[in-house]
Specification:
By secondary structure, this protein is mainly alpha-helical. It has a single domain, classed as Tetracycline Repressor, domain 2 (Orthogonal Bundle), CATH 1.10.357. 72% of the residues lie in helices and 0% in strands. The protein contains 15 helices and no strands.
Length: 305
């Protein structure tokens, strides 16, 4: 193999796991873990805990996402040939067999790293893996209208946050459960932004999404409640004692949620600088702000309580 071919192969495998999307589990998990560490009054050196527990846990979730990305590109080959021909498999840089080997290796690595954390974290990682595998493989929930949104929102929103919180705290307390449900509903709605550029390709290959079934404008109205009201209802959760009053600032995330739907209504197209559309990028940014905002506010509230 020539040096040029080898470099092309390496670039292909890097593109296969879609590095940009791995930022979400890393940023979100580390933020939630820090909040859990402080909130649960965990005893120990922060630097030691960071290296021995937080890094393996966050890498486990990120690698799990990379494994899912690789598997999904194998099963989405027909769709990608139409709408994303520049991806490594349709371009011929990576073979299907190679992609499956990488995916299997990453799943095994993610699960192995979770063993270094604790049993509950392992259970959540296995649960997330179940959702990601069944999303891509038969019965392939990615093709099922409405269910495909749930199969994205549950593992990336609820289970991801509960897994991160379980590293140091009780994942079934009202605080992580409430924030996890907010994230889940937001992603059930917001994840349709990834389907915009695959509209026609999904339709031709039998994948039924809200976008190609109802059109982007109508679909945005359908998911608007899932994206807007979880943040708008935060004051109600605070009044019910499920969230601390300091988290009221997260209510303002209803604004970018509204903007995401607005961009979809305005015929959002793929950005030249981004992997997907502007609404898709804003969805990720909003999710980052939810995790970062929740972490900072929880740490400050716990420290000065």
């Amino acid at each position: 193999m020539s040096e040029r071919s080898f470099k092309q192969l390496i670039k292909g495998y890097i593109a296969l796991i879609r590095p940009f999307t791995l930022l979400a589990p890393i940023i979100v998990s580390l933020c939630i873990m820090f909040a859990s560490f402080v909130y649960s009054e965990h005893i120990g050196s922060t630097s030691d805990v960071f290296l021995s527990i937080m890094i393996p846990a966050s890498f486990s979730l990120a690698i799990l996402n990379g494994a899912s990305n690789a598997l999904n590109q194998v099963t989405d080959l027909k769709t990608d040939k139409i709408s994303k021909a520049d991806r490594p498999i349709p371009r011929g840089d990576v073979s299907i067999k190679g992609a499956l080997i990488v995916s299997g290796f990453l799943y095994a690595l993610a699960i192995s790293l979770s063993l270094l954390v604790n049993t509950m974290f392992l259970v959540f990682v296995l649960s997330i893996a179940f959702f990601t595998v069944t999303y891509s493989l038969p019965p392939r929930f990615k093709d099922k209208l409405f269910l495909n949104q749930i199969w994205v929102g549950v593992p990336r929103g609820l289970l991801g946050i509960l897994a991160s919180w379980s590293v140091f705290g009780n994942a079934f307390e009202s605080l992580p459960l409430s924030v996890g449900l907010i994230a889940m509903f937001f992603l059930i709605g917001g994840s349709i932004t990834k389907d915009i550029i695959d509209d026609e390709a999904d339709k031709k290959t039998g994948t039924h999404t809200l976008i190609n079934t109802y059109g982007a404008k109508k679909a945005s109205f359908m998911v608007f409640p899932f994206m807007f009201f979880p943040f708008a209802f935060i004051p109600i959760l605070i009044d019910a004692g499920l969230l601390d009053s300091s988290l009221g600032l997260l209510t303002f995330l209803a604004i970018p949620s509204f903007l995401i739907c607005y961009l979809m209504c305005m015929n959002d197209k793929k950005s030249k600088r981004l992997e997907n559309t502007k609404s898709w990028a804003l969805m990720y940014v909003t999710y980052f702000f939810l995790a970062i905002g929740f972490s900072v506010l929880t740490i400050v509230s716990s420290t000065f309580a």
